Write a sequence for this structure.
């Protein structure tokens, strides 16, 4: 599998375009059972430098789609330590950050941070308590629905971002889009995984593109990276 096919982190890579499919009947309730099995998905995800953590420590997979109400996300997050921010600076600890831009005008964009609601110390609960914050530097605002729910061995976060501020959406539209998941385990241990190409979503022009379609394109089942210790062995 080539890096282009599997979404490897490569500095300077050009963005890719992926088709995400129209959904019907998806309810934002933290339950992914109403998503079709052929929905576009990505994951597991890795860090910018290609590193990963053990799956039991931090593991992320995501589904993407759209409907008349907006762009849809379904995140499955495995995290051994819930550590969410108690302030409005949600991205400083466990959170999901999403950036969507206007394809015709890169100065029109939305950045939203979401705390899943898994950390009871920060006002969340294992049955809800999801918090949403549109970043102040966003030039567009949008209604964002988000609901988190605890499963036996993971936490699900389901999101719908309304696209009214972008002029609405219809089949065939293409939007620059990227997302990052932040993992914080204590004061000095932070880790970030992202869906190309930069873990800092505040940087413009650094996004994949999603095409709103009736049928999803092939999913991205993982990522690849390589190292060559002493130029003798390939890992």
């Amino acid at each position: 599998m080539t890096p282009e096919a599997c979404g490897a982190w490569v500095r300077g890579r050009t963005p890719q375009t992926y088709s995400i499919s129209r959904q019907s009947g998806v309810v934002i309730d933290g339950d992914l059972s109403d998503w079709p099995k052929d929905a576009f998905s990505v994951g597991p995800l890795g860090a910018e430098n290609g590193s990963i953590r053990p799956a039991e420590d931090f593991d992320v997979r995501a589904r993407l789609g759209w409907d008349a109400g907006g762009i849809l996300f379904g995140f499955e997050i495995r995290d051994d330590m819930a550590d969410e921010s108690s302030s409005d600076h949600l991205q400083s600890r466990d959170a999901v950050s999403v950036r969507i831009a206007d394809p015709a005008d890169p100065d029109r964009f939305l950045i939203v941070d979401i705390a899943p609601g898994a950390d009871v110390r920060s006002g969340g609960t294992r049955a809800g308590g999801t918090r949403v914050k549109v970043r102040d530097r966003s030039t567009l605002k949008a209604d964002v629905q988000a609901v988190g729910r605890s499963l036996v061995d993971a936490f699900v976060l389901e999101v719908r971002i309304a696209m009214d501020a972008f002029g609405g959406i219809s089949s065939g539209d293409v939007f620059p889009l990227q997302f990052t998941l932040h993992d914080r385990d204590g004061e000095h241990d932070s880790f970030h995984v992202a869906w190309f190409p930069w873990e800092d979503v505040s940087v413009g022009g650094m996004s994949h593109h999603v095409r709103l379609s009736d049928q999803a394109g092939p999913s991205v089942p993982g990522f690849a990276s390589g190292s060559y210790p002493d130029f003798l062995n390939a890992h």
About this structure: The chain has a mean pLDDT of 84. Residues 1 and 86 are 42 Å apart (CA to CA). The helical segments are 3-6.
